[in-house]
Amino acid sequence: MKKIIINGNNKLSGTIRISGAKNAAVAIIPAAILAESEATICNVPEISDIESLEEILKFLNVDIKRATETMVIDTKNMKNKLIPTQISSKLRASYYFMGALLAKYKYVEMYFPGGCKIGKRPINLHLEGFKKLGATIEEDGDKYIIKAERLKGSNIYLDVASVGATINLMIAATKAEGLTTIENAAREPEIVNVATFLNNMGAKITGAGTSVIKIKGVDHLGKGFTEIIPDRIEAGTYTIMGALLGENLKISNIIPEHIESLTSKLEQAGVDIKIEDDTVVCNAVEKLKSVNIKTYYYPGFPTDLQQPFSVLLTQCNGKSKVEETIYENRFMHVEYLNKMGANITTKERVATITGKTPLKGKDVIATDLRAGAALVIAGLIAEGTTTIEEVEHILRGYEGIIEKLTAVGADIKIEEKTCQTA
Ligand code: EPU
């Protein structure tokens, strides 16, 4: 178990370079098993979710070569096996092996995936979609046996524009016979990244990035190559830090359109940010105005930035409202922000934040990945020392967070937690 210790209130200046997007990489790596020869993936972030995927690939006898930021996957010795739940439950994205193994072998046995406990997070749309493609599904506790004689293209309408279901069904349909249409598909940039990769291997996918995706099945997928897009959630997290503590803090290697819903809210709050090509430059200002946010599917305000943004709202003058529409349980950071001095009340899916309140360093717990990111921001602006426990959640999604923040002037370190003996 590790903990992060932050001595707050240092200004941040210099440059933070954004890494490859977690939520694109965690889908592209499972999709890469469809390559009949090697697949090369560049700009892979060094985060623990990727280590968990490597563990799964090794278990399936896939050869992996890893150089800095590049992963080469070779499936010639691959074996289709039930991935032990101890590995697949380490992350949400293990569910992409359902679509990928189904496309490759027409047979997959897998357990329900893991991931942050931020709501119910069912996978019914993935399973219903597989059935539409001609698969049958047996459920045995939390294990699924998904098989098909042959996969056949179909029209699939998603009741919810789910990122995971859109990607999983797109992967499964690449080798189905005929045309598959996914309607009400999610439009997140990570989906475009996955589709481009699959097309590079020989798939025939059009419409990724819109709400109607068409996939014309092919028999073979060849060699694959792609580069992971910059992580818009990591970019947003550091931009929020810059808005609060920046002295000419530059966040580089970003795609500005991907964080527009955030930057427009920051501008509304009165933050001094400038966007220059692939960089955002942030300077903290004395007075910030309250603003309301409502999370929504892309291009709406991302749920993954809701918790980090709520820390900024504690420093805005007046009442702000945060409405979380995607998950039922994404306010677990609030208890700890209040412990640090914030004034936040929650009612169902709405949090009301009254600011501005100074924050004080305290002992807190990272209950999930983005709650952890929020507490790092809170620790950086707080007076005194903040100790964050259960930071394994944070390390799942933020490459080199300690090094990146130290390099721009933060006083932050990570330590192994020592056990107290009586
Ligand atoms: N949903 C269903 N049925 C399904 C699938 C989803 O009802 O079969 C519901 C979910 O319960 C949720 C909503 O649809 O209320 C959206 O879920 P979605 O499927 O879009 O989310 P996901 O694929 O499980 C990915 C990211 C999340 C991110 C969401 C939304 C990965 C591995 N995870 O999750 O990332 O919050 O999309 O953008 O890509 C994070 O990075 O911190 C994180 C949680």
List the SSEs and their pairings:
Elements: E1 2-7, E2 12-17, H1 22-31, E3 39-42, H2 48-59, E4 63-67, E5 70-74, H3 85-88, H4 96-105, E6 107-111, H5 124-132, E7 136-140, E8 143-147, E9 155-157, H6 163-173, E10 179-183, H7 189-201, E11 204-206, E12 212-216, E13 224-227, H8 232-245, E14 246-252, H9 260-269, E15 272-276, E16 279-283, E17 293-294, H10 306-313, E18 318-323, H11 334-339, E19 344-347, E20 350-355, E21 363-365, H12 369-381, E22 385-389, H13 392-395, H14 401-407, E23 411-416
Parallel strand pairs: 2-14, 3-13, 9-10, 17-18, 21-22
Antiparallel strand pairs: 1-22, 1-23, 3-5, 4-5, 6-8, 7-8, 10-12, 11-12, 14-16, 15-16, 18-20, 19-20
The chain binds uridine-diphosphate-2(N-acetylglucosaminyl) butyric acid (EPU).
Residues 23, 26, 92-93, 116, 119-126, 160, 162-165, 186, 303-304, 326-327, 369-370, 397 line the site of uridine-diphosphate-2(N-acetylglucosaminyl) butyric acid (EPU).
Number of strands: 23
Which oligomeric state applies?
single chain
Helix content: 25-40%
**Spans of 5+ residues with little confidence (pLDDT < 50)?**
none
| CATH fold-level assignment of the largest domain | UDP-n-acetylglucosamine1-carboxyvinyl-transferase, Chain
Question: Structural class given helices, strands, pairing?
Answer: alpha+beta
Distance between the termini: 19 Å
CATH architecture of the largest domain: Alpha-beta prism
Level-1 CATH class name of the largest domain:
Alpha Beta
Give the overall shape, derived from the CA principal axes. Answer: globular
Mean pLDDT: 96
Percent strand: 25-35%
Order of strands across the main sheet:
21-22-1-23
Give me the Rg, rounded: 22 Å
> What count of helical segments does DSSP give?
14
Q: How many domains make up the coordinates?
A: 2
Major β-sheet profile: 4 strands, mixed
Hetero groups: uridine-diphosphate-2(N-acetylglucosaminyl) butyric acid
Name of the CATH superfamily of the largest domain: Enolpyruvate transferase domain
